[in-house]
Specification:
The chain has about 450 residues and is mainly alpha-helical. It has one domain. Helix content is about 85%, strand content about 0%. The N terminus is likely disordered.
Amino acid sequence: MQDGLTRENKMGTMPVGKLLMSMSLPIMISMLIQALYNIVDSMFVARISEDALTAVSLAFPIQNLMIAVSTGTGVGMNSLLSKALGAKDFDRANRAATNGLFVLLLSCVPFMLFGALLTDWFMRTQTDIAHIIAYGDEYLRVVCIVSVGSFGAIATERLLQATGKTVYSMITQAVGAVINIVLDPVLIFGLCGMPAMGVTGAAVATVISQCVSFALGIVLNVCCNREVSLSYRGFRPDGSIIGRIYAVGVPSILMASIGSVMTFFMNRILIIAFSSTATAVLGVYFKLQSFVFMPIFGLNNGLVPIVSYNYGAKKKKRMTRSIRLAILTAVGIMVLGTLAFELIPDKLMGLYNASEHMLSIGVPALRIIGVHFLIAGYCIVAGSVFQALGNALPSLITSLMRQLVVLLPVAWLLARTGDVNMVWWAFPIAEVMSAAMTTLFFVREYRAKIRPLPEE
């Protein structure tokens, strides 16, 4: 019980700026390391060939879908867990943690079956180039069949984040990322006496690092996370708890999954209307933008439990101050990202061994897409507030409108001009619409849930 009270004091009384940084900074650092791994991983794959890079880009929607399912479920678990801690209902917090971890690990089963049966079919739905199909098939097969490491790592990280143990969460992610970065060249090119495994080596390095992160996360939760108990002795799934987890988690899963659908069809638009090189450029963009967006997601992971906790504790001022500071921080990070994309796009593309043809497509693409970063920072933080208040539906609707209703049709129409540079403008156009809808939803949620809280 004393641990729970200590947790309450930190979340309810620590100065907001210090609290947000203490909660978010370790996650932001770990996600920067994770983003660095994503960049380095693809850099090594690009050294094999442009076709290998294209194959990994075409495989990205499935990887993104796995992340969507695991992180979305984690959002539901964390929202329920943080609210229970804020209300000092420690039994409910324990049940949220154990049931959340249980359903997260079950979620990898469909992806394991997909990896065993459907990876070749998935690649053939996007291209008929034999080398790209072969590369993508071998990469996806490994990543999906051993996806338990990915789901387990995210589950244990989210438990640490929800209870304020963000330094430990940083450790699990950083250890996994470093292992991946070290193993990539060893397994891809056959260093240190290992056989050269090519694209398969990149996949094997990924799943090994995820499994290590999962194992370390279990150890740290059992030994260091005193706010919750993960005892499964006599455990039975609690339908009520699981239902509440998915009430918040399913909209988050769907919202993140929309990105997979968008990427899949953007790949098809680019490869059919232009070339596989344009698809490779899109893949490079997603890798590079993760270095800009990952810190924002880390900021969100720190913000969500703060808002949820103080909403449960009815502390209005702390909620609004946290939200305001998070938005300002996100916009500041996005300024740096925009400057990089506008000033040194050729250097960024050069990281991926880009040919002259790839540079001619990639440099304008990065400059055009980078225009929307500042707006995106605000939209991402506002969306996390909806989730923290237990209502992820506004984020789902906005994401659906942005990526499927606006971005894809606009991209398809612009592709009909025959100029690949026109296609990239679909991203800023869709983000402007997203900002307008996000603002309308945010005002409504504020009036309904935050404004009625008593003044402190």
